[in-house]
């Protein structure tokens, strides 16, 4: 625990040096991915804060390519599971297979044994598969037969959801969505970015292969440093005010939000705001968290943790609108 | 002994034989009666039919269709009572007649062998003396007002009049001027800020409390004086918004640096020198003075006639 200003100053310096790996990553992934810097930043926050990220966006927004490129740039293993209605838990975590020659059962590990796991269209698999994955995400270990296996470190699950074609899907329950540190809405690229994408794909511009520029050890060190980032009690209070305002808006002079919110953020919301805030500070090469860090990640951390009422839906009020109102009302320390 | 024996034998014989005799004698009884034997034309008469049917006999009742010279007004439901030794059925029928004369309600058969009694009924007119002279139909006459009724009406009129007067008074009276509430003494944001700054200067505060106090004083002042919602803004956002406030560039730069320094002290335990503290204090005070002066000048120029 940091005690003095000197500790924080030294941490600042160390983060300043260690944090350069994020620049290298951005640059390397930027060779392949045009735009989507917001998504890349959120993936890095997930990586640094040891959390998993849920990505929601229409098909064709380079979600898979970004994650794949990130894993290549980190020299990490990458697996992808396309979730379908007939998928079984064993297809994700692995199973025991009988070996006739050796006359014994051998373990066949599933694709979950990797550093970066892309769970594509997670809402298309039934609840038991989702549950198996989400449990592994939480425990960071998997039991096959009688043996428990620890998952790799870093272990980052990036699950995607397609907001279209919702028929025949199994939407993640609130309790399970809560396990993702962030839910990132992946938007369309800007016009000039899309122009670059056209050129890359149509005019035959050669895309560079992503080179490994960061080692897993560097990532682990960065995660350790992120944990040490100083968070003052004033920032903690700010986080608590924001989360409590989602639960009891009337106590923050937000009476108009009361009929719009059916349930507010859980304690996990506060924890994840703090963790993501520290990671955001690290990305900004700072050894301490400031209110700007919390505000910048508020939408992504809270949007899947606040339930809206039918009244809100009828009035076309989105979760982001609610969060914005709360941020406008809660005093900054 | 012999006599006693004889009496006992006779008693036993009676006790054994008599119920059998009684049971053998029980048979279906049908009855009919009316509540009045004489009515005027159109008056009602109630006919009650009863059938007392012993056990082991089939249950049956009268099948009525019409009664000559009589009209049915209401055929009541048949009421069944279990008497223990049989069943009693009762039906009440309302009749009337529009034929004057002496008529008989005939006997009604119940099964083949049982009949009710026939009942004579006189249907007559009201007493009428043809010797009396005829009188024209009278006009509608005014009812004589009863003394009590008129006095109660008088009271109603009096009460209504009083109510009307009260209503007129309420409506037409001049609205009383509301006493102006003792207005809370308006606190001048500038004065308040200066008082707070003076308090901060005098108190021995920790660096964190000192810089929190300074920024809070400035934020509250700027919110009250310029309407900028500074309390809910981060330092970065506030610095951007302060560009819209008329200020010398050097002062703006110093203020931005002071606000950022405050963030370092508040969130990163940055240790400042005494000179830093004095400079921060002076910057906040100067900025508030400057903004106050600008506002006063603007107000004065707006009120001065051209």
Structural notes for this entry:
The complex is a heterodimer of chains A (333) and B (306). By secondary structure, chain A is of the alpha/beta class. Chain A has 2 domains: 20-219, P-loop containing nucleotide triphosphate hydrolases (Rossmann fold, 3-Layer(aba) Sandwich), CATH 3.40.50; 230-329, Magnesium chelatase subunit I, C-Terminal domain (Helicase, Ruva Protein, domain 3). Chain A has helices at residues 5-18, 20-30, 37-48, 63-73, 89-93, 127-139, 174-177, 191-202, 216-228, 233-247, 267-283, 291-302, 310-314, 319-329, and strands at residues 53-56, 78-82, 94-99, 104-109, 116-120, 141-144, 147-150, 156-161, 182-185, 261-263, 307-308. In chain A, the strands form 4 sheets. A 5-stranded parallel beta sheet of chain A has the order 2-5-8-1-9. In chain A, strands 3-4 form a two-stranded antiparallel sheet. Chain A has a two-stranded antiparallel ribbon with strand order 6-7. In chain A, strand 6 and strand 7 (147-150) form a beta hairpin. In chain A, helix 9 crosses helix 11 (267-283). Chain B is of the alpha+beta class and 306 residues long. Among the domains of chain B are: 25-124, Immunoglobulins (Immunoglobulin-like); 189-289, no CATH class. Chain B is 46% helix and 18% strand. Chain B has 7 helices and 10 strands. Chain B has helices at residues 2-25, 147-172, 189-202, 207-226, 235-241, 249-268, 274-303; strands at 29-34, 38-40, 44-54, 71-75, 79-82, 86-96, 101-105, 109-110, 114-115, 119-124. In chain B, strands 1, 3, 4, 5 and 6 form a 5-stranded antiparallel beta sheet that branches. A 3-stranded mixed beta sheet of chain B has the order 2-10-7, with no helix packed on it. In chain B, strands 8-9 form a two-stranded antiparallel ribbon. In chain B, strand 8 and strand 9 form a beta hairpin. In chain B, helix 3 runs antiparallel to helix 4 and helix 6 crosses helix 7 (274-303). Chain B starts with a helix and ends with a helix. In chain B, 17% of the residues are buried. The A-B interface holds A 2, 4-5, 8, 12, 230, 232, 234-235, 287-292, 295, 327-333 and B 212, 229, 231-236, 263, 266-271.
